[in-house]
Amino acid sequence: MASAPTGRVDTIVLIHGLWMTSRSWEHWVDRYEAQGFRVLAPAWPGMEGEVEALRADPTPIAQQRIADIVDHYEAIIRDQPRPPIIMGHSFGGLVTQLLISRGLGAAGVGVHPAPVKGVLRLPLSTLRSGFSILRSPANRNRAVPFTADDFAYAFGNTMSRADSDAAWNRYAVPGAGHVFFEGAFANLDPNSATKADTHRDDRAPLLLTTGTEDHVVPPSLAAANAQLYRPSRAVTAYHEFPGRSHFVGGEPGWEEEADYALDWAVEAANTVSPTVVSEAPGR
């Protein structure tokens, strides 16, 4: 753990993904706070309750929309005294990209991120991960149960079934059908809320990561997402973690991903971010 807060960058905003709550960041929050960072892990709007409460009454989950989620985090970030590092996991990684596209943040990290509009193919493993939602158009406006079996395939595929079930019990909530449909069919919607300005040159540096065993955001999907940023002169990086699944919050060895993301973001924010330094060189 080499990174430490500086006068320029001392705050991290963590954004959770679909099927999860801000509880999913608990280990990362503790690790980053131990290094002296101020860490914010706010929930999606309306999802401030605990996992158990959201399972009992998933109404707040069914109400989620990507545009509302992005606006919610934009307000939080603009309220900070200086631009923070923004990190988001899965659909939170999509939100991170959209926030960076709006000119926010000192640096951004999409941790196994859902893609912005423009990636033309979704891998079969991605579609299978979301099959509980996609199998019925009626699920678009529902909070769809995410079973232990669903979790074992989408998140727990590198762990024992007992460990996967324990993680499901602690972290998983129903999935927001509308959010998943928005992401899955973004290319069919000319006004998709997932559209980012991937050509923007004056945005903060952006890192996209994934794991070679990730069923939700496999390397083919994450790499295609990263390729969308090639026209931009802003810094964009991509990294794959061998043997890693989608469960970055608690899979054994999660510390490696947390440290890599933070080290990269702090270095990028302090050296090339146009929101932190006066001039930012191109790639």
Automatic annotation (TrEMBL):
Record keywords: Hydrolase
GO molecular function: hydrolase activity
Domain of life of the organism encoding this protein: Bacteria
Entry annotated with the keyword Lipoprotein: no
Keyword flag Hydrolase: yes
Stretches assigned to the AB hydrolase-1 domain: 12-250
InterPro entries assigned: AB_hydrolase_1, AB_hydrolase_fold, Carboxylesterase_BioH
Signal sequence region: none
PANTHER family cross-referenced by the UniProt entry: HYDROLASE ALPHA/BETA FOLD FAMILY (PTHR43194), PIMELOYL-[ACYL-CARRIER PROTEIN] METHYL ESTER ESTERASE (PTHR43194:SF5)
Name of protein: Alpha-beta hydrolase superfamily lysophospholipase
